[in-house]
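Lay summary. Proteins are chains of building blocks that fold into shapes, and those shapes determine what they do. In this project we predict the shape from the chain. Here is one chain we studied, written as its sequence of building blocks.
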Amino acid sequence: MEDIEWLNLVDTANHPVRGAKAIFDVQPNIVLLDMEMPHIDGNYLVDWVSPRLEKMENAPHIIVVSSLDFAPEDRLPGIKGYINKSHVTSGEALAKLIKDIID
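And here is the predicted shape, written in a compact code that computers can read:
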């Protein structure tokens, strides 16, 4: 992500609970959420975070990054989009994928 000039990395979390807390404390514009996390399933975290995001004035765009493929009917409420990890071949590729989702 350091290669993406328009993206400012403000925080990272290697534990889902810390990550969820950071969403509300830091209030970023974009959150990249890995679906395969230790200790908790990403779907569970999304279910917990989504209702709280609706109450935020400027809720972040939540983008799931996963090695799994998601069909449109599998889209979870509160998720702006999905990026398959196999498509992230460079910083430039990640930047394009994120822009395609948030624009």
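What the prediction tells us: The two ends are 18 Å apart (CA to CA).
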